[in-house]
Amino acid sequence: MASVQFNGIVKKFKDNLVLNGVDVDIKDHEFVVIVGPSGCGKTTLLRMLAGLEEITGGEILIDGLRVNELHPSKRQIAMVFQDYALYPHMTVEQNMSFALRLRKTDKAEIDARVGEAASILQLQPFLQRMPKQLSGGQRQRVAIGRAIVRKPKVFLFDEPLSNLDAKLREEMRVEIAKLYQRLNATIIYVTHDQVEAMTLAGRIVIMNKGIVQQVGSPIEVYRKPANLFVAGFIGSPTMNLLSGKLSLQGEDLFFSNGDIRISIPPYLLHDAKKHDGREVTVGVRPDDVLVGRTGEKCSDKVEGVLEVCELLGHRENLYIKAGNTRLLATVEAFFDRSPGAAVSLCFNYKNMHVFDKATEKRISE
Amino acid sequence: MLRKITRWFSATAEDASAVLRDPIQRAKFFKYLAIHVIIISTAALFVYPLLRIFSVSLRPGDKLFSTDLSLIPDGATFVAYASLLRDTMFLRWLWNSLLITLATSFIGVSLASTAAYAFSRFQFPGKKAGLILLLSSQMIPAGMLILPLFLMIMKLKLMNTYLGMIIAYSVSSLPFSIWILKGYYDTIPRSLEEAALVDGTSQVGAFWRIILPLSTPALSIAFLFNFTTAWNEYLVARVVLFSSQQYTWTLGLFELQGQYITQWGMFAAGSMLVTIPVLCVFLYSSKWLISGLTLGSVKG
């Protein structure tokens, strides 16, 4: 297995700047998920690592070796493509052994490795079938098997589950997690699905518009989003973001947007005087909007009207309007109020975030 | 037995009346009827001249100009076939044609398959202009190319040679083959080649191991096109070849047409015999003309 370094990676398609100085260090045996919206450059970054896309600027190192000019076949990587990319004129077994046959590996060794991968992925009954005779999930397993038999330095997964239905995606997600535990390999996994990112990753790289927004463990990016983009992108349902202004009254700092006025405690923002008059965005996750409850670290009360209730099973989404401000709260199921009822709520300070409106960067602790 | 037949007819009549009662089924029935009438009459139109030639080839010498329309004429004989093979250089002409045609087809398809790959997969200056140029060359009537071809082949000192013919034929059928193959390559997902590159092949290896095996339907069509065009060509052969030893069958059969007498029996026999190689090639290549080769490769 190997480490991977992206140093100041730039990619341009004619005049279109797709990646703008990407720096990421991926350690040996690490499972890193690159996540971001469509068109953020995540797949391009992966393809550049695979050698399928030219690098405009910067350098990529695998195990300390610069691979910018190295042919894909020499990089000792294996890639699982979004659309499987199985060779349709070959059986499952031939697909899986293709790379080994190219390297003129010993026949017994090929059989052993294919057999091992097939048993891990439960593909033994399908080894003599053609790809068109397999279901979507089986094809994806063959694509993963093709990567496993090579014993590469780095595994690359390019949105491997995006073509599967919800149930199958869940199953395959667990399979990939188990596979990682078993192989303990360096895996770089690209997805736009934050659930995959949160559940699989050791570390998440969040990208937007060709720039790395934040790198951190799933809990870090969830609990301490570095900027407004990360705050809005990670977490489902999305975070409530309230634009307003900070003002100092006496020693206390207050946030107000016309409808909501809450105090901002010093442990959230130090040096209150410095922030007086600052335009900010306050972020609170729906789980941290406490309806009809108070707590030790709870903000001032906010009065609102319940607009819609969405029962999700064990949880319920409440859409609340406070003046002209819309808020989403997620509470335990079977909330006993009907739409139109007045509700009182507060925000959990423990997980409240304050972002500068101009720079969009996090300024709270 | 009679009862069985009666039962079958009454069952069919019942089915037919049931079909005709349902408006959707009725529309379908008339649509298929119309399609079949068109197909059968077109087939008859194409087959009839062939049958007439076959009939003429079997006629004894004294009945060549008979107006009798029977397929197997009175006193049918293979004399025309025998004398064609015995008294003329027909087998030699056939061999010349086969050699030139096969070489043309293999060279044409090889060149076209690689050129089409470049046009399909790579970006290079003049790509679009090149494609349009290839297409526009197909709009020039073959007759207009005779003079430049003649001059080129003469300058290359390849007059009256197989090579001269092979070059002339391969070059003229190349644009069509390139377009056919490029169109087909465009439908093959790029991720297959990329997977092959990551698996350890070179670009050429990916073409050879992945793209070519998947392109057999298009390669067969290009091969058939090259084969039939070269096999039936007369005009270029007339200009390039001048000794009867080197003649292709088209020129050879024309030899049989004398100033005062044309040996129609042998002419017809020759025409029948030359269809055999083309038929064989068509029948053999039909197994490659299967669609859906890339099914299952990518999510579809």
Task: Summarize this entry quickly.
In chain A, 24% of the residues lie in helices and 35% in strands. Chain A has 365 residues and is α+β, with helices and mostly antiparallel strands.
Structure explained in plain terms:
- The complex is a heterodimer of chains A (365) and B (300).
- Chain A has 365 residues and is α+β, with helices and mostly antiparallel strands.
- Chain A folds into two domains: 230 residues, P-loop containing nucleotide triphosphate hydrolases (Rossmann fold), CATH 3.40.50; 117 residues, Beta Barrel (OB fold (Dihydrolipoamide Acetyltransferase, E2P)).
- Chain A has nine helices and 20 strands.
- In chain A, the strands form four sheets. Chain A has a six-stranded mixed beta sheet, with helices on both faces. A five-stranded antiparallel beta sheet of chain A has the order 13-12-11-14-20.
- In chain A, strand 4 and strand 5 form a beta hairpin.
- Chain A is elongated and about 80 Å long.
- Chain B has 300 residues and is mainly alpha-helical.
- Helix content of chain B is 73%, strand content 0%.
- In chain B, helix 7 runs antiparallel to helix 10.
- At the A-B interface, strand 6, helix 2 and helix 4 of A face helix 8 and helix 9 of B.
Using the coordinates above, name the CATH class of the largest domain in chain B. Mainly Alpha
**What is the number of helices of chain A?**
9
What gross morphology of chain B would you assign?
Answer: flat
Write the CATH homologous superfamily of the largest domain in chain B: MetI-like
Q: Which CATH C-level class of the largest domain in chain A is it?
A: Alpha Beta
What share of the residues of chain A lie within helices? 10-25%
CATH H-level superfamily of the largest domain in chain A: P-loop containing nucleotide triphosphate hydrolases
CATH topology grouping of the largest domain in chain B = MetI-like fold
Largest interface: A-B, 32 and 24 residues
Q: How many beta strands in the DSSP annotation of chain B?
A: 0
**Structural class by sheet pairing and helices of chain B:** mainly alpha
Number of helices of chain B: 13
How far apart lie the N and C ends of chain A? 37 Å
CATH architecture of the largest domain in chain A: 3-Layer(aba) Sandwich
Rg of chain A over CA atoms, rounded to whole Å, is 25 Å
Range of strand content of chain A: 25-35%
Major sheet summary line of chain A: 6 strands, mixed
What is the oligomeric state here? heterodimer
Main beta sheet of chain B = none
